[in-house]
Amino acid sequence: MIVKNFISALWNAFPADLEQHLEHVLDTAPRDCRIFFRADDVAVPGKAMARMLEIFRTHEIPLCMAVVPAWLNASRWQELRAMAKDSSLWCWHQHGWRHHNHQTRGKKGEFGDERTETAKQADIERGRDKLSELMGPAFQPYFTPPWNRFDQQTAAILARTGFHAVSRSAGEGKKVPLPPELPDLFINTDLHTRNETDPALGWDALFAELEEALATGRCGVMLHHQRTNPAAFDFLDLLLQKVASHRRLHAVGFDGLL
Q1: 89-108 burial by CB neighbour count: b if 16+ within 10 A, else e?
Q2: How far is CA 169 from CA 85, 190, 246, in A?
């Protein structure tokens, strides 16, 4: 298992007007705007995972957790269940098979065009069956692909293997259209895998991304708890506090988007 723990620059310096700026951005949301949160690379219990769950539980905000099947075992699942406690807030769903890049050219992907249809379907079904066996009724049949992308062949596989929807990056819909029976619950705001090297530029880009996403009436926020520091969790706490009390925002899970 390989997880990058690089902390984006913006989490090393907060702007002085952070709370006011955040409130201004959230106030641009249209009436009855839906917002959802998706945490990727879930499977291994730890302090960051526990802190993330605590924040969502405190503000009673749903969280869709993309679980890497190959990383999960029975003992880890028991620890995660103990951390999360039984709650209707959580949507445990599938994040590929083992988060392994199979592409030798272009962008990374676990389910790209350099694998056979048979191999891709085998990994998808193996991951689905493992999570279903370990999690029982807690597992929900949604699919988040590693690196937020897959090819057209994979879209057809997911449609015929019982998944209710997929969650990718917003721009993937134009590149790889989905069958009509497979909704795309795309994310359009990235909290933690940001590449800006200057904190001020990072904050400007994040707020612009958030405002643009809210303007569509549906904002999907991607989290990576391994790439957080205390400041990142402080911001997440503030964000969820503002979302929970905002008159125009309605926090939902995947089921609230269908």
Answers
A1: bbbbbbbbbebeeebeeeee
A2: 29, 10, 25
The Cβ-side half-sphere exposure at 239, using a 13 Å CA radius, reads 22
Three-state secondary-structure class, residue 28: coil
Confidence of residue 198 (pLDDT cuts 50, 70, 90): very high
Q: How far out from the chain centre does Cα 14 lie?
A: 23
For residues 209 and 199, give the distance between their C-alpha atoms in angstroms, rounded to a whole number: 15
Residue ranges and CATH numbers for the domains of the chain are 9-257 (3.20.20.370)
Provide the residue count of the chain: 258
How many whole angstroms from its chain centre is CA 175?
20
Closest to 23 in 3D by CA, of 257, 258, 228, 238? 238
pTM over 0.90: yes
Is the sign of the CA dihedral 112, 116, 117, 122 positive or negative? negative
Assess contact for 54 and 112: CB atoms under 8 A: no
- Mean pLDDT (the chain) is 96
Phi-psi region of 242 (alpha: psi -120 to 50; beta: other; left: phi over 0): alpha
Q: For residue 190, give the H/E element and its range.
A: strand 189-190
* 8 Å CB contact between 94 and 131: yes
Distance CA 179, CA 248 (A): 32
What value does the mean pLDDT take over residues 130-145? 97
**Percent with pLDDT over 90 in the chain:** 97
